[in-house]
Design a protein that fits this description.
With 746 residues, the protein is mostly helical. It contains 26 helices and 9 strands. The strands form 3 sheets. Strands 6-5-7-9-8 form a 5-stranded mixed β-sheet, sandwiched between helices. α24 links the parallel β5 and β6. The longest helix has 34 residues.
């Protein structure tokens, strides 16, 4: 008996060693992709980083996720992720990397969780391959290396999945409640996007649990009620608080969290309708879509080294301009045209779809022979869960009017799970000569290699012909050899199967490394040789991010000396030849603002000082550069006012908040279109001595036109020589750098 126990212990120890032998390198790969060089991103996403700076200053700002230290307006998302980022900054100090760190760790955690979820049912090798596929899915590290929300959201949903699987295994209702409550927590990270997994949760629980229908309905109803209660808990508290005792809810039009959740961050993402109404004026919202369309145009204009690519992208971006009233015109943000094959189009396929053909073949193999009425095996039940996650999310991204490339991280867990489970299942069918199913493995390898060649082909000028030809040739050869050797069982066949998996993961691995190799973009994270531009699509021959269209933003008062800018207008600016002008830039390659906007090449110091080390990646926020002369002037002439200055939107405000920690008022919220301020409210603030300096460019957005007009009519213009870093002959007018005004009312 002792001898048998000893053998069992030795076998368990050996199994653990084998598990760690493969799992540890996978985790190290994930850690490298998610963590390496995040310390070079000094601003991260400046819009969100400014909020963390503000949230560090008081519990009031912390609870409401205030964008500015004065508690004037919140950011456009709920607070949970930013609470975590603020805690991280409190522990490690306020740096770019400290606000990115939680998301990077969440990306690593998602790899581990997927291993645990897949391994238990489909086996160790399935878990390993799933974890590796998750780690190497390009959009996963691209998002995790920023302070955007999505990496933490996916991790939280995987935690909820683990709880649900445990609820089914243990038949304990408490775990069901915990799983759905966790989805409620995820709702307080990115609102309705968290609910995209609900079909999978409902379907799996109904199919997998062996209890009566009466209990299933009762349990799911109770769990859903708890989820909804957790989801709206923060919203109810905020919306129930008097508006004068809290910040305005940023990016909403009625100062309501619930309106933000189900409108701006909800249904509008599907319809693409982002028009807003403010103070009786209905105008196209200066939101993510409009600014990005202009930015796409700027990106194409900036690539002088690749005229042919530039001309093509100019034409493309011209066609993709948003029509008034919102709507995604011809693939804004390189998200392709809505349709059943959208995920295979340029701009999306290279972020998430590298293994999709193999996944499709895996789904066929895993569900082969399944009868609708059951009974179902555990593998089939969990496969159904991942399918019910994959299909609705894929359908959404196939038809949605507006989203960003980095939202596609929502597809990464089911794709990776099917890649892992399917690799083992298809290999088993292949080895057992299981009829037509034995052809699924070589078929999956061949079609996946073909798709990867298609994905890489627009990037031939950047990556060369060799890797494209190599993947195509090896994929075809390995698939054909495996097909020919179907009747043979020897070690060579095993090596060929392993080699095929390596080939299929080789280019996703390279793509996943591109944010490290080429630099990333914290505003619109994406992977690929043009990852620093954040715009996706085929790259230009630009050798750095300054050549890829994100280098033009200037701080308030810093002139580029070019009044005939081609730059798109930012919130707060007036139109210039159909484009939008940044509030503080006349650069030829003006950067554009996005929700939670940030940009590359912004000047940002170590620990946010006014000078930047050349070793740092200056990818902070648009306009993420502080004009020290302006700051000195405002500081010197502040006579006790609460706000250092006011401006139309968050673009100009964010770097000054980060640099000084002082309140800067973004009068119209993130994009300048929030109907926060009225003339009477502004008069009252000025009379109370809360603000006297205003930095303006153009006529404002949404409901701000009346306010901007009143400011200009009742203010004293400050001579540019007193606050501009560089004088310019073209500092006035809609295409200039903007103007500093002073108002004092008795």
């Amino acid at each position: 008996m002792k001898h048998m126990n000893s053998e069992v212990k030795e076998e368990r120890t050996s199994n653990k060693k084998r598990i760690y032998l493969f799992l540890v390198p996978i985790v190290l790969i994930a850690a490298f992709l998610n963590l390496f060089k995040i310390w070079t991103d000094e601003y991260a996403n400046a819009y969100y980083t400014a909020a963390v700076k503000s949230m560090l200053q008081s519990f009031h700002n912390f609870f409401y996720a205030s964008f500015d230290p004065g508690g004037y307006v919140t950011i456009d998302k709920p607070p949970v992720v930013f609470w975590i980022q603020t805690i991280s900054a409190k522990i490690f100090g306020f740096y770019g990397w400290s606000v990115i760190l939680p998301q990077a760790l969440a990306g690593i955690g998602s790899v581990l969780l997927l291993y645990v979820l897949v391994k238990r049912t489909f086996g160790v090798w399935a878990g390993r391959f799933a974890a590796l596929a998750m780690a190497l899915t390009p959009i996963v590290p691209a998002v995790s290396r920023t302070n955007n929300i999505d990496s933490m959201l996916v991790f939280t949903l995987l935690v909820a999945t683990w709880m649900l699987f445990r609820a089914v295994r243990t038949a304990k209702f408490g775990w069901v409640l915990a799983a759905f409550a966790m989805i409620g927590v995820a709702f307080n990270m990115k609102m309705l996007q968290a609910y995209m997994v609900l079909p999978a949760f409902y379907v799996f629980y109904v199919v997998a649990t062996k209890i009566t229908w009466k209990k299933k309905i009762a349990f799911l109803t109770t769990a859903t009620a708890l989820m909804l209660a957790v989801s709206v808990s923060w919203a109810v508290v905020v919306d129930s608080t008097s508006a004068d005792k809290r910040p305005y809810m940023g990016s909403s039009q009625t100062n309501s969290v619930l309106e933000l959740a189900f409108g701006y961050n909800g249904i509008n993402r599907l319809t693409g309708n982002t028009s807003v109404t403010g103070s009786g004026h209905k105008q196209p919202a200066q939101t993510e879509q409009q600014t990005a369309s202009s930015e796409t145009k700027q990106t194409s204009n900036s690539s002088a080294d690749s005229s042919q690519s530039s001309n093509q992208r100019k034409s493309s971006s011209s066609q993709k301009m948003q029509a008034p009233g919102g709507g995604n015109q011809n693939g804004m943000f390189n998200t392709g045209n809505p349709g059943p094959f959208r995920l295979f189009q340029k701009g999306l396929s290279d972020q998430i779809s590298w293994l999709l053909p193999f996944v499709i073949f895996s789904i066929v193999g895993l569900f082969a022979g399944v009868k609708f009425k059951g009974p179902y095996t555990t593998k089939q039940k969990e496969s159904l869960f991942w399918l019910a996650w994959l299909l609705p999310v894929a359908v959404f991204f196939s038809i949605a009017g507006f989203f960003h490339q980095y939202y596609l991280i929502m597809l990464a867990p089911p794709i990776a799970a099917f890649a892992g489970a399917g690799a083992v299942a298809l290999w088993s069918m292949y080895k057992q000569h299981n009829g037509w199913k034995s052809w699924l493995l070589p078929g999956g390898i061949l079609t996946t290699a073909a798709l990867q060649v298609y994905i890489m082909s627009p990037y031939v000028s950047s990556i060369g012909v060799a890797p494209i030809a190599g993947v195509g040739a090896l994929g075809v050869i390995l698939a054909l050899v495996l097909a020919v050797r179907k009747q043979r069982k020897n070690s060579l066949t095993n090596y060929l199967g392993a080699a095929a998996m390596v080939v299929l993961l080789a280019m996703p691995a390279y793509w996943a490394m591109t944010p490290i190799i080429y630099g990333g973009n914290s505003m619109l994270p994406s992977a690929g040789p043009d990852s620093s531009s954040g715009m996706g699509g085929p790259p230009s021959t630009a050798t750095n991010s300054k050549q890829s269209g994100f280098n033009g933003m200037q701080p308030p008062g810093s002139s580029s000396g070019n009044s005939s800018s081609n730059g798109g207008q930012m919130p707060g600016g007036s139109s210039n030849n159909g484009q939008m002008q940044p509030p503080s830039s006349s650069s030829n390659s003006g950067q554009m603002q996005m929700p939670g906007g940030s940009s590359n090449n912004s000047q940002m110091p170590n620990s946010f000082s006014s000078k930047s080390s050349s070793s740092k990646r200056k990818s902070g926020g648009m306009n993420a550069e502080v004009n020290q002369k302006l700051l000195n002037y405002l500081t010197k002439n502040n006579t006790g006012e609460k706000y250092l200055f006011a401006t139309t939107d968050s673009t100009s405000a964010a770097p000054y908040i980060i640099k000084t920690g002082k309140p800067v008022m973004a009068m119209g919220g993130f994009s300048g279109s929030d109907p926060i301020l009225t003339v009477s409210k502004l008069k009252a603030m000025i009379k109370k001595g809360e603000v006297k300096y205003f930095y303006l460019s153009g006529m404002g957005k949404g409901g701000q036109s009346d306010v901007i007009t009143w400011i200009k009519d009742n203010s004293k213009e400050i001579p540019s020589s007193k606050w501009q870093s560089t004088s310019s002959s073209a500092q006035q007018g809609p295409s200039g750098n903007g103007t500093l005004y002073e108002i004092t009312l008795k």
